Amino acid sequence: MSPPSHTPTQPAPDEGIRLSKRVAALVPCSRSEAERYIEGGWVKVDGQVETSPQARIAPAQQVALDPAASLLALAPVTLLWHQVPGGALPAPQDRWSGDRSGQRVAPGLLRHLTPLLPLPPEATGLAVFSQDRRILRKFGEEGWLLEQELIAEVSGQLAEGGLARLAQGLAWRGQPLPPAKVSWQSEQRLRFAFKGIDPALVPWMCGQVGLVVTGLRRIRIGRLPLAPLPAGQWRCLQPHERF
Question: Which of 137, 136, 182 is nearest to 161 (CA)?
Fold first, then answer.
């Protein structure tokens, strides 16, 4: 008995080409420049803005570049975000109405942000994201020198001499932690100011002196304060601002 015959595999239908390739031919420009135009929100497909360079475009679809398109207007961005517990990464619609930077931030640009001095997911407060090579290099080389200020909501009974131990006297994995400034803000609030300590260690630090952290909020990094940025919203770092 002869084996059953098989229908030959049919070629996949034409899925079009990548949008970045179409734009590169349209401008003309390099593929990397085309991707920046697309992610910058300068490209429309059939009249709608498309910010994904990987989008597949059929030959019949209309691709247009905004006449005002300029790569010079797409400067690398650094965002200051008021992180909320369990919140997603900064989203285009959450830009603060009080942002006075004047910087154009297209939705596609938010895909390439690197978190700097990240907070634990359950914490709130000032978080920094950047794609600016100068900022990334500064944090990579000098981030440990930037003072961070945090407020910890605590419960429990502070052990005798606990503030002194928090300020200078704890060791993590056999290494002494850098000194910290620690003071009471209220009966349930401790203020921490330190350099070179991961904020994720604050609950552990408090646990060593009899306290339980029920909330953690960062209110400053270097010279930049959190206020008046509303919870869940972000703004761009302004040209004159320095960490």
Answer: 182
**pTM for the whole structure:** 0.75
Contact 147, 193 (CB under 8 A): yes
Residue 72 scores a pLDDT above 70: no
Query: What sign for the dihedral angle of Cα 136, 138, 142, 145?
Result: negative
- Write the single-letter amino acid at 91: A
Q: What is the pLDDT of residue 6?
A: 45
CB-CB neighbours of 116 under 10 Å: 19
Confidence of residue 11 (pLDDT cuts 50, 70, 90): very low
Residues 6+ apart with CB under 8 A from 5: none
Report in angstroms the alpha-carbon separations of 74 from 8, 11, 25, 57: 49, 40, 21, 24
Q: Residue 218 pLDDT more than 90?
A: yes
Largest CA distance in the chain: 90
Mean pLDDT rounded to a whole number for the chain: 89
Its sign, for the CA torsion 105, 111, 116, 118, is positive
The answer to whether the CB of 21 falls within 8 A of the CB of 43 is no
Half-sphere exposure of 36 (CA within 13 A, CB side): 16
Q: How many CB atoms lie within 10 A of CB 13?
A: 6
Q: 17 by DSSP, 3-state: which?
A: strand
- The full DSSP string for 132-198 is -HHHHHHHHHHGGGS-EEEEEEEEE-PPTTHHHHHHS--EETTEEPPPEEEEEEETTEEEEEESS--
